[in-house]
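Job type: complex structure
Entries:
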Amino acid sequence: MEEWAPPGIAWERDNVGLQIGDATDDVTGAIAALEVTPEVVQEAVKKECNLIITHHPLIFKPLQNLTSKTLSGKLALDIARNKLNLYSAHTNIDFTRDGVNFALGNKLDLQNIEFLHQESGTMKKITVFVPPDYVEPVTNAMTKAGAGIIGDYEACSFQIRGTGTFRPLKGAQPFSGEVGKLQHEDEVRVEMVMPAWKASAVVTAMIDAHPYDEVAYDVYPNEAIDPAYGAGVIGSLPDSMPVDDFIAHVKNSVNIPAVRWTRGHSSTVARVAVCGGSGSELMPAALQKKADAFVTADIKYHTFHEARGIIHLIDAGHFETEVFVVDVIVHRLKKRFEDAQTKFYATSYITNPITYS
Ligand SMILES: [Zn+2]
């Protein structure tokens, strides 16, 4: 799960990862669901699965107590009493490639799907000065810790040879040179990018592999965009269609009896932005990327007013726009653990609490 949707990319106020349980348990089987309900817990017990994987975290706000008086408390107790584990991947699965939003885009048959909005400032750059014989082990250690990934390339670094100077002081244990004497040393400057959340692991790995007793290195903020992650997606329909046909297409694709929507500007729809769940704040990005329509959920009344006459804004349900990720999770885990006996299931329950009538 975390190779695909690392917890470090989640929204800073999110709560993801193992929520209840023991990370050393062997997984007997796993059930994936959008959220945990009493039915999902029963299903896990019945199918002898000791792991429940959800998109929505059960524990989100700090708990005051853990009792059966609240629904979430009761669920947590049931999970623990049945020796089950609960793992949640929330905004990290929203922001990753092939996560919630790619699943929704695929369901709507969008082509050439790309991220709708990507934040800068999620990357850092590390620069370190290494004696030539140690460039390979130091670079390898940083690569292993997650530095040097740019899109579909790994182990990306830049290296330039130069001269470092230092005068070892009393107490130093210099790799080369003598205490009290100015040393000119042949060194290689190695630069690599890294996701900000991996910076401390990369620095630790680099220092472990470096031969100096005092390592000279810099960690810089980097405004470059990490192509691996982003919010929402945008793509094109295979053929543009009249707006009313597009509304029918959305209803049909996400299996919802009705959508709340407001009419935008264009008479046909070709470019479509989507964000599963509450994605209203991405409307400016959808406009900037020239989407004809924006499909999301939890849209407020006044947001519809803002969109009217500008962009076809469609609320296709929180559950309905996110549920496809459950099958994606199951599919990925089955593939990743092809040789294992572990069974992976998507829940057979519809956990959506909302009905339409
Ligand atoms: Zn959601």
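Summary: The mean pLDDT is 96. The longest helix spans residues 324-336.
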